[in-house]
Amino acid sequence: MKKSNGIAGKILTAFFVLLSLFWLFPVFEVVINSFKENAFVNLEPFALPTAESFVGLANYIKGLTFGNYPFVLAAGYSLLITVASVALILVFCAMSAWYIARVNSTMSKIFYYLCLISMIVPFQMVMFTLTFTADKLNLNTPWTIPVVYLGFGAGLAIFMFLGFIKSLPLEIEEAAAIDGCGPVATFFRVVLPMLKPTLISVGILELMWVWNDYLLPYLVLDRTKFMTIPILVQYLKGSYGTVDLGATMAVIMMSIIPIIVVYIFCQKHIIKGVAAGAVKG
Question: Which residues contact 80 (CB under 8 A, 6 or more apart)?
């Protein structure tokens, strides 16, 4: 029996190794093509750089300065939107989930089910009304669009936070209340520190979503003034609409490196946070 389990384990290991290589192949293609001249990217997209096609860091330098909109500015707006959106989602959704878990009322249940429904509603159903509303409420700037992301990211975040909060012993919060902590102090001093595994998990998932998101900033932001990195990639075009694929690959590589680094250092917390949130609820 143990021998058969060992063989099955090796087969599964080999299968998942092959599957991981399958998923890593597009990233590998972006890396090798970011060091090749544009003509060779079109002619030989799957070939490794050669002495003739290799251009060093020229594509990266061109990607930083290509067009009328600098990459650094787009990266700055992406960073601002991502950090502000994730911070809002973590604080407000954790607080909302705590309220739902501890206040067993009809309104809290309705609010929770509305959050769940928001997870299954396709973005395409609301994008036109969203654009109109964002323009009317002046939410079409990098400083205000995090409010829109808060609304879209609340469903998943509250769902994960609620499962973990239900597993926390209520006696700890009661002890804090006896010591004189009000609801706000109890949340920030007692509950929030215990939510660390789920905070990290939700933070990573929301960070990857907001940083890589293209459609929402494209619809909401004024593109003549503000661009994020995914939007900038679309506008890396030369005369007559020609696309410099080498520079485009370099820009894509520069945009995914920060997310890869964050994910590598924090990946162990994702499973831990998801597992912790699945204890109850």
Answer: 142, 143
Q: In angstroms, what CA-CA distances link 42 with 30, 33, 36?
A: 13, 10, 10
Q: What pLDDT score was predicted for residue 140?
A: 87
**Single pTM value for the model:** 0.83
- Please state, as a whole number, how many other Cβ atoms lie within 10 Å of the Cβ of residue 44: 14
143: closest CA among 84, 103, 230, 79? Answer: 84
Going by C-beta distance under 8 Å and a sequence separation of 6 or more, which residues neighbour residue 213? 228, 230
Taking residues 75-97, report their average pLDDT: 93
pLDDT at 280: 45
DSSP percent split of the chain into helix, strand, coil, nearest 5: 75, 0, 25
Asked if the model's pLDDT at residue 239 lies above 80, the reply is no
The CA distance from 151 to 117, in Å, is 12
Output the average pLDDT for the chain.
84
- Is 243 strand, coil or helix? strand
Give the chain's domains with CATH numbers.
2-59 (no CATH), 63-277 (1.10.3720.10)
